Amino acid sequence: MSDKRTTEEDVVAELRDGMTIGVGGWGSRRKPMSIVRAIARSGLKDLTIVSYGGPDVGLLCAAGNVSRVVYPFCSLDSIALEPHFRVARQTGAVSTLELDEGMFLLGLQAAAWRVPFIPTRVGLGSDVVDRQPEIRTVVSPYDDGEELVAAPALTMDVALIHMHRGDSRGNGQYLNVDPYFDDLFCMAATRRFMSVERILETDDLAGEGPVQTLRINRLMTDGVIEAPFGAHFTECVPDYGRDEAFQREYAGSAKTEEAWEAWRAKYLDCGGHDEYRKVVGL
Amino acid sequence: MSAERGDTTQLITRAEYCVVAVAECFRGDGEIMANPIGTIPAIGGRLARASFEPDLVMTDGEALLIAGAYPISPSDQPKVVEAWNPYRSMFDVVWSGRRHVMMGASQMDRYGNQNFAFIGSWEQPKAQLLGFRGAPGNTIQNTTSYWIPSHSPKVFVEQVDVVSGIGYDRAAKLGAAGRFHDLRHVVTNLGVLDFETPDHTMRLRSVHPGVTVEEIVASTGFDLVVPDAVPETRAPTADELALVHEILDPTGLREKEVPNP
User: Fold this and answer.
1) Integer distance in angstroms from the first to the last C-alpha of chain B?
2) Half-sphere exposure of B215 (CA within 13 A, CB side)
3) Which residues contact B21 (CB under 8 A, 6 or more apart)?
4) Chain A interface residues facing chain B, Cβ-Cβ under 8 Å?
5) Nearest Cβ partner of A105 from B88, B131, B180?
6) Is the pTM above the cut of 0.90?
7) B117-139 tens-digit pLDDT
């Protein structure tokens, strides 16, 4: 029986410059931040990040790991606009593929199903289609003959997600109200890594929540990391809410280069997740 | 009616006219999801359900559908959950067309083309804003209205920098593929606009009491269609005001979004 337990550092050792990396969660909610921080410390370059974006995107942009972002929005929720992502866009540091939120879902689903696209009406008439030649249309082969958008598969090299509970075999469980799209991220990627708040014995997972919460099965994962507070400072209810004060400090670090260097020195250069927890007091 | 209005106009704030104008957007919608985004939109949507559109389905802003009337500010009032509606299910609702969303806009042109993605160039915007979010899908798949808390020529422009939500001219070019496109009303802090003209260019529907037609025309960066007679936005009834004051917005968040002039 395989034991998929691993560490943030071992995950980063598998990554290469230029890879396409998907990050689960939504905005500033249940993001695999301990893995994201390990990437931000790595010096990896030219990554394409695919995300319902939050501080995962902003932090990696600020750390210089990113050349392209595939996204429908990038927000900290309680702070509407991700400030580090804004800096990256407004200085021209990253290119983007701009997508509608639902078109993004179809792209994940297409990649998970191993088809090149899924047809949809979403995007027709908007600049998502009209000004991005990489988004193409198809004509229905049926009698209606309608022209539809071919939402492209968002195939990725690696997916990173954070769940509340898991086991060493790579099953995962969410305990908040929304599974987001984490299962699809895993199924759209070649290599899939999941951090969890706690690793339990498999037969203890069912005691944590109804069977519907067992959304990630071990077909979807290659590695599992036990990382308590692994989603900090993003929201991970019921285990913990968003750390709003910390998030404000993070957002403030986008104001000047000096502020970013100070934030980086304190919270990134301090070391791995255990050291980060000590510095933050988690 | 006019006598009643005369008696209460002094007591009604601009924000409360906005709230009732938002509520009116949802009149006649029946059993669909009303999805008003923003402070005054949330109050107005809940007002519609608490009064003349009782079958509207509404979310808690996240993954639950909630029954009843409750405040938009955090409260201890227990919520009655009707159903589970995670983001993935929300797209099912949008694409089925059983939804009327009210979004914001950083820019809008006379056909209702909306931008809240970014200002400036695609490669290096002057101001990165929200991104496209759900605007392309919303505008082509279900009914859409807009809320503009600060009506100005910076918002209402000849040409938007990027089209996130599509307007009537672009929908018309799509032919049959645009058949579910339906922009209803644009409610602002000054009045209500719609697209009920032969070529679907924006028209002044009503002015909030205390605002002149000239003021709205001057605050709009393109030629607005102005009918010979422009009515005033209707006043909330006494029952509607009580709902807003006592149940939906007891802490007065509406007045922060649109201060009384």
Assistant:
1) 25
2) 13
3) B44, B185, B187, B192, B206, B208, B233
4) 26, 53, 71-75, 80-81, 85-86, 89-92, 95, 98-103, 105, 120-131, 144, 146-148, 177-181
5) B88
6) yes
7) 999 999 999 999 999 999 999 99
